[in-house]
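User: tokens in, sequence out, please.
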């Protein structure tokens, strides 16, 4: 029973790692309806920037803040210079461009920082917590990761559901022509969406890298969900299941089961775990 509890709590923490990456993809998808294949590479680059700052200053939190700022700027710059020319073109154009960005950014990261695996520091201690004498299988850093992802998920859900900025983002994504007629500055709104996604992606990179090590393609294994709730629930389910697989069946089967889970989601719910179609009246 103790082993099961450890695997479950460890899986929840591991699942939050997946959810952190998925949330940044959710923002771009819901705000622009573009599937950004380069999101993982963007997160890697900002994480390298954070590691450089941490190594020079000795302060984790200085690197943390600089990485978030770099993600914000990187997202905005990419949208203005690379994505905007293809935003009103056939969807395949944007797919090709973001795949090209993936290769380009990972290549740049490899040239600047090299291809070797690098360890990344954690914000808090990784010593396991105990409930009296029972080990829980999680650490203070795991609690920090889970809390950060939940806060971002709630903020993202509130942004799209309750704010005029979220409504403008969705309107610009679904019908930019009508949005312009209603006075929405579509270009600025889309830039804001990419900037926020870059910031969340940078946060995801900071949270993920201590568990995966850091190298140019360390965040290629990402998946897409259509809502913040789907990102959290899907990430938790995947994390717990893969932790059970690794604990009971062996770590060599984790990648296979992860691929099977991804294929199952794409076959059963290709639009996302909790995607719905509804009309909003104004």
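Assistant: Sequence out:
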């Amino acid at each position: 029973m103790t082993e099961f509890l450890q695997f479950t709590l460890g899986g929840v923490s591991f699942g939050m790692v997946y959810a952190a990456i998925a949330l940044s993809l959710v923002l771009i998808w819901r705000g622009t309806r573009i599937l950004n294949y380069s999101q993982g590479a963007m997160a890697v680059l900002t994480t390298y920037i954070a590691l450089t700052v941490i190594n020079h200053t000795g302060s984790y939190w200085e690197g943390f803040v600089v990485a978030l700022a770099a993600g914000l700027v990187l997202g905005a710059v990419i949208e203005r210079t690379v994505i905007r020319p293809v935003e009103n073109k056939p969807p395949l154009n944007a797919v090709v461009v973001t795949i090209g960005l993936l290769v380009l950014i990972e290549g740049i990261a490899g040239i600047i920082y090299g291809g070797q695996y690098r360890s990344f520091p954690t914000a808090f201690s990784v010593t396991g917590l105990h409930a009296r004498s029972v080990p829980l299988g999680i650490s203070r850093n795991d609690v920090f990761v889970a809390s950060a992802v939940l806060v971002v998920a709630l903020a993202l859900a509130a942004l799209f559901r309750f704010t005029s900025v979220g409504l403008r983002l969705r309107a610009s994504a679904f019908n930019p022509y009508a949005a312009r007629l209603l006075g929405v500055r579509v270009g600025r709104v889309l830039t804001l969406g990419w900037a926020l996604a870059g910031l969340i992606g940078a946060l995801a990179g900071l949270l993920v890298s201590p568990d995966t090590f850091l190298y140019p393609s360390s965040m290629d294994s990402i998946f897409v969900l259509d809502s913040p709730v789907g990102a959290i629930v899907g990430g938790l389910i995947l994390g717990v299941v893969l932790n059970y697989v690794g604990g009971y069946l062996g770590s060599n089967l984790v990648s296979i089961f992860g691929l099977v889970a991804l294929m199952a989601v794409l076959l059963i719910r290709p639009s996302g775990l909790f995607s719905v179609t509804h009309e909003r009246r104004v």
